[in-house]
Design goal:
Elements (H helix, E strand, L loop, with lengths): L4 E4 L15 H5 L5 E2 L8 E2 L9 H5 L5 E4 L1
Antiparallel strand pairs: 1-4, 2-3
């Protein structure tokens, strides 16, 4: 059975809506599936590290993250 992972919809992602331009979803991810180099920049996604916990989905203010099966 394939594991769950996340997908980031870059058309909905807007780091300026997160506190100090830092991706709220990246802040809650202990595995660093989402990584942001600098405030205001789009986060990079490393789905192979995802455990499917969905904490990032709850934290994203724009709903730009989706769970994939």
């Amino acid at each position: 059975m394939p594991k769950s992972t996340i997908l980031l919809d870059y058309s909905r992602c807007d780091p300026s809506l997160c506190e100090e331009g830092m991706c709220a979803a990246a802040k809650v991810c202990d595995r660093k599936v989402l990584r942001q180099e600098a405030p205001g920049e789009m986060p990079d996604v490393y789905p192979n590290m995802c455990l499917g916990c969905t904490e990032c989905l709850k934290a994203c203010p724009t709903g730009a993250i989706r769970k994939m099966q």
